[in-house]
Write a structure and sequence with these properties.
By secondary structure, this protein is an alpha+beta fold. Helix content is about 20%, strand content about 25%.
């Protein structure tokens, strides 16, 4: 008699266990988090749900080159006391028996004109003609960043204008102080009132 009672008990326990297992799995599925409509704008929702995405602050500025055309090259380097001797020689401006260290970079396109672009958003704070340096434009981009564009012609902006990054502000031209370069653009980047090498800042956040 003991033999016949054991099998039903075992089968019953097995059935109960199986039922509980299935029930638990169903509850787990039911409680699985579901996608709901985001209360945030799409871009904010994406950032909250993908924290590995890079976040760019509104005040960050990534500087582009002051030209976009193909074929524009460095005609004269920024003078860097840490640089190679050959680069330092190429960064000296010779005028009326005097050598001067270039505090910017000169760009040329085999004697051809090319469009000159604003490298960042900003405000034009000075536009002037200079017999020695050629026409020039100075743009203030933030409290500590300014850019200067010299040897420039066909100027399209005036003092007080607001410019955007990539906006055409003129064309490359000539200057008397660097007449040997022919048609070119002299570009200077000033950070905290100090001229720095622009070539080290392109495509970087200032």
């Amino acid at each position: 008699m003991k033999k016949y009672l054991t099998k039903p008990v075992i089968y019953s326990l097995y059935g109960v266990s199986l039922f509980l297992l299935v029930l638990g799995f169903a509850v787990t599925i039911k409680q699985k988090p579901q996608m709901v409509e985001s209360p945030f704008p799409n871009h904010a929702y994406d950032i909250l749900n993908h924290l590995d995405l890079p976040v760019i602050g509104e005040n960050e500025m990534t500087m582009i080159r002051p030209y976009q055309e193909e074929g524009v090259v460095v005609a004269q380097n920024y003078y860097d006391y840490r640089g190679e001797e050959e680069d330092q020689k190429n960064s000296l401006i010779y005028y009326e028996d005097t050598y001067m260290q270039s505090t910017g970079v000169s760009y040329s396109k085999e004697g051809e004109e090319f469009d000159v672009l604003s490298v960042l958003d900003g405000e034009v704070i000075e536009v002037k003609e200079d017999a020695l340096l050629g026409n020039s434009i100075t743009i203030k981009h933030s409290s500590n960043v300014k850019t200067v564009y010299q040897s420039i012609t066909n100027i399209t902006v005036k003092e007080g204008d607001t410019v955007t990054k990539g906006m055409i502000i003129g064309k490359s031209g000539k200057s008397n102080i660097n007449a040997d370069l022919g048609v070119h653009l002299y570009f200077e980047l000033i950070i905290d009132n100090i001229s720095v090498n622009p070539e080290e800042y392109y495509d970087k956040t200032l």
